[in-house]
Amino acid sequence: MSIEAITNLPPLRDVIDANDLRATKALGQNFLLDLNLTRKIARVANIENTDHVIEIGPGPGGLTRGILLEGAPSLTAIEFDPRAVNALQSLNDAAGGALEIIHDDALKMDMMVHGADGTRKIIANLPYNIATPLLIGWLKQIHGRGADAFQSITVMVQKEVADRICAPFGAKQYGRLTVLCQWLCHCHAAFDVPRTAFVPPPKVTSTIIHLTPKTRNDNVDFETIEKLTAAAFGQRRKTIRQSLKPFTDALEQSGLDTKLRAENLSVADFIKLANCL
User: Fold this and answer.
1) How far apart are CA 216 and CA 259, in angstroms?
2) Are strands 206-213 and 198-199 parallel, antiparallel or unpaired?
3) Alpha carbon distance 53, 68 (integer Å)
């Protein structure tokens, strides 16, 4: 890969104009054009020379350039929009074999076919409208394979979503996504990105989050935690005596205070309850 060839590429605004790549709301597109910012995002992932990076929704390639310039030896970029696929071809040529562009729907793809076990890192500016389902799908793979699935996930999401992922129990943001993420990963909010950094600017602030798989000591099924958290937080104003009524036997066996509400149960409490099922 030639760093010089990448740095000498046309400005991203020119790439957008040449390929008529106007951001589409239906695809959740908001482009990052500042290479200083995209390189800063890539650095959060601490890319090493054995890593295989997977990027979702590269658009015109701002973050893609940042990832390559920060030393990714191998990068798979998955893009749904055919206009963006065309726009990425000059970057593909400059990358000299380090970049693979796949025209497909990331929600339907098996990420395990890209890169070897223990090498995969996801770095992405996720489209807001599919960020949560993508994350839950990746968490399921981490549940089954740990760091063999992904060494880390470094993604941009709405600040509201980041606050939920990283919330302490007892906080109003604490919820189902919190429990799923913190059960399986160490979760860290790296930094916020203002709406003015995007083209076009979204209505909300965004946050870069960094997730790394935990070493687990339980045998709890992912589906069990999904059911428990869906029931508990689906009626979060009620006590768990009411919201978890379908799991009364397990609740009694767990010894948890049934007068508590869902946000007052730690991740460990949910695992304890799941073990009683």
Assistant:
1) 29
2) unpaired
3) 9
Q: Strand 75-79 vs strand 99-103: parallel, antiparallel, or unpaired?
A: parallel
The H-assigned helical ranges of the chain are 3-7, 12-18, 35-44, 62-69, 82-87, 89-95, 131-145, 159-166, 176-184, 222-234, 240-243, 248-254, 267-275
**For residues 265 and 238, what is the distance between their CA atoms, to the nearest angstrom?**
13
Residue 74's nearest CA partner among 49, 106, 41, 103 is 49
* Whether 207 and 252 share a structural domain: no
Q: What tokens appear for 65 in the block?
A: 């350039």
Q: Residues 122-181: pLDDT tens digits?
A: 999 998 889 999 999 999 999 999 999 999 999 999 999 999 999 998 899 999 999 999
Alpha-carbon gap, residue 16 to 21, rounded angstroms: 5
Q: What is the mean pLDDT of the chain?
A: 93
| Domain limit, last residue, from 172, 192, 213 | 213
The enclosing domain of 59 has a CATH number of 3.40.50.150
Determine the pLDDT at residue 30: 85
Q: Could you give the CA distance from residue 97 to residue 88 in angstroms, rounded to a whole number?
A: 13
Examine the pLDDT at 219 and tell me if it is beyond 80: yes
| 26: helix, strand or coil | helix
Give how many domains the chain has, as a whole number: 2
Structure tokens at 144: 């089954």
The interaxial angle of helices 222-234 and 176-184, nearest 10 deg, is 150
CA distance 32 to 136: 24
Q: Are 6 and 95 in contact (CB under 8 A)?
A: yes
- Put simply, whether the predicted model's pTM sits higher than 0.85 gets the answer yes
Which two tokens mark 106?
């990331």
User: Of the residues 213, 237, 256, which one is the last residue of a structural domain?
Assistant: 213
